[in-house]
Amino acid sequence: SSPLGIHPFACQFKEVPDGTWLCLGPSEPNTAAICEAMLMLVRRAPSALGLATRGPQRFRSLQAVRLFAGRASRGGAQAPAELKVEEKSEPSPTAEEPAAAGAEAAGPSGGKASGSSGPSALLVLPLLRRPAFPGFYQTLQVSEQEVLEILQTLRRKGQVDYIGGFMTKEPQAPEPDATASTATATATAGGGALRRDAGRVSSVTQLEEIGTVLQVVELQQYPNIPGGQVVVMPRHRVRRTRLVSQPSPHVPLAAVAVEPITEPQAERNDADARIKHAELVSTFKKLLEASALHKEKFEQVAQHFNMNNTVKLCDLAAGISMADRQDLQAVLTEEDLTAPMEKGMAIMQRDLNFAKLQSEVKSQVEEKVSKEQKTKMLMEQMRQIQKELGIEKDEKQTLTTQFREALEGKDVPVEVEKVIEAEMAKLNSLEPSSSEFNVCRTYLEWLTCLPWGHAVEENRNIAKAEAILDEDHYGLEDVKERILEHIAVSFLKDNTQGKIMCLVGPPGVGKTSIGKSVARALDRKFYRFSVGGMHDVAEIRGHRRTYVGAMPGKLIQCLKSTGCSNPVVLIDEIDKLGRDMRGDPSSALLEVLDPEQNGSFRDHYLDVPVDLSNVLFLCTANVLDTIPGPLLDRMETIRIAGYVFEEKMAIANKYLIPQTEEQSGIGTEKLDLQEEALKKIIKDYAREAGVRHLRQLLDKVSRKVALDLVRAKTSESPEQGPTSITPENLTKYIGQPLHMSDRLFAGGTPPGVVMGLAWTSNGGATLYVEARGRLPSGRVQGGMASLSSRPAPEVSQAAEKSGGGMTGHMQVTGQLGSVMSESSSISLTYSRLFIREIDPSNSFLDEAKIHLHVPEGATPKDGPSAGVTMTSALVSLVLEQPLKAEVAMTGELTLMGKVLKVGGIKEKVIAARREGVKTLILPRQNEADYLELKEYLRAGLTAHFVDHYDDVYRLAFDESQTPPLLRPSRGLPVVTVVTPEEPADKKVSAEQPSDGDRGDVRPIPADSPNLPGGLPLRSPSPSAPSAEVSKTSR
User: Fold this and answer.
1) pTM above 0.70, yes or no
2) Residue 908: active-site member
């Protein structure tokens, strides 16, 4: 086996000190093998046997080979001298042969080397990737077929054993010609593009000046694609001196004249060189220890390098390095001894740093992987040990055991039990690594965690529940009474039951928070979820199990979270459900909120019946208009109208002020909020139906006080007493009042202006209607100033007068809806007819241009309840007489003058109390709604219930200042309910009807509760009448 890489034969070759080679054969050598080996040796090592290098050498006969083998085994180093070989001259290639053109241009040496000096002219093989350093075998991939063919042709003729290897100055792109493209395509089809180490260039100027002499060891053609590989051994450095021939289409390789570069030697006494050399050796050893790749390359070539030779050591370091091609060329180019040492040290240092980083990353990865493998191995061993000891079974058996334990003590329906058993059997047949195993496992976890038949014990102590409700909320008597009724029914039936209730009211009245109080009063678990803006039906009914990441709906999650089958579920913002092409959750709630259907509710994920009949559903909404009719029909509606002034005072003192003092950290000793200041906050800042804005204002006051306290402590000023909040300094803490006066017309309404009552989603509110008119002559009636505004859409009224057509018309402004606009038309028509009855000579409405306006034009308004208000404003305008003071009215009016029922009586009454109104005119059909109100809401009010506008005219206007109505009322008798300021026991009285009047007495329930405790009002007097009802016909 030769160090040149020659395949093993029956003979061995050994290099002797004079540079020649000895062939050491066996005692009976295989002459054919020896002959073949000799021929290969002579081609690859021209200096072997001391033969001339001018042509290929041949043994004339096998006898010469035997003679050489025998003498070489006996004579040692003298054998080559005794050998006589007959040369057979081979004819040189003709000039016509393109393959020989480059060799002829190289000179008479023909590419052969004599001894170690080498030729003076060489063919040039451009190196594209990195330079070649002496002492390293290199396998160069050549993709150009013409380059490989010329090397093969010249080698067969014995003319190219040595070539010059010079690296290109710039990296070369792959050849764009057809041959290279075909080779690349074929190589890519076979598994990847070939590496291109050497090839052709267009000019020698693209090559570096310094290169190496390459001894061609082997040429190998690729079997299926163009190109091949060339095995070379770099010998020594050379420099290009002149150009012999440029590359041509027929000869792709150039020829250049070269001169050898003498290897620098270090002086023996140069201490600096010895130190640098030792540092090089030390760094190189560290590099070999840190990088396995460098160590492997070093072991392959270590026998050819002398570590004591500085130049050889630098070549070795650069040859096995992966540094940049220009840095490697710089090491090859330097001719003195100092520069290669410095550059070689820099290259080794960079490789060492990279190897350390690579080793660090590798160690971290191996540590992580080994830790995971160790954990996995230990877990597997522990599992096997536990299995042998009988401590734990396998995963599937463990899961089955857990599921069965979860079902113990539960009343599982038969249908559900069958599904669970089928899923368990399926789980045992699956492999734990399969995806279906996890799906089945999750499904069983949901089935077994539900509280099948498990209900918590409900509180049946009425007194305890009432105390809890009163402790958490002030007022809300309707809600509290309904919950107590529910407890009473459960007590009598001796079981738990579910109901569906809907709490409707403006924001900030405590709809959401009362759900927690109800759950606490009943000793039930509480669960809340909001459906505001919800579009996905799967949020209610769950996803199908076929979807990735499927899960049950909110109701099943509720049962799992609470762990019982009878929780209190609060469905918040049910009036804001989304509905579009993605789904309609309100349809899914039909089954959930239907007492006849929710006993067998089927979730899409579970697909088994689940009993929801014991769940107490509480829904909250601001309005009922947006709730679908079928869904609203399934719920019991409880209205929460809002709070009056007295209730807000009590809520602030009992709940809000202590909470804000605690949350702000100031405590009860640092804040003194006077009662007058609190009253001003409620009247001038927080007039809304709820108390949310009031809470925000109190929080703002507390924060301001806290800031003042901290600043005082920082400045080390003497400690002060509690901060007093008075009506005078209130604006310092919460700004200017939002409502500067109690009413729009504080001094009384002028002619043509009437106060009405309206219902809004935020509670009740007062609504003024203003009317002005101008005759063609220019005379203006109504109000105190002329009307000047932009024209608005006109509502023309057509009627006939005895003298011809009417010229008057009316325009309506105030952003009124279609229903309210129609009410204004009805009001104008009826007013004209009514004025003709009481004053036939007055034709103002028939001739004048009327403008009807409802203030706060930016607020949309609609509804029929302003009919009597608009009619009264027009009558007041025509008669030029204002209405009585402290009068507000509401009611729908027909063309025949009938006053119809309206809604929102409670909210409207609260709004009237908030504005200080004392007299109300309401429709006769709303009498029952008014009497159902708590007495403290009606305290100080006088309500007249009318059936026809004739009675409205008599009650609203001063009869001494207006034309009298000469005929009896065309409606039912008026009912008047007077509630004194000091509520007392109910006492019913009635005025006796006069001649021709129809009258009777309607008793008011005598069991109405007193004003709830805690209100800052005077206690009722036992002798004062609670309410007086009279029916009169005028």
Assistant:
1) no
2) yes
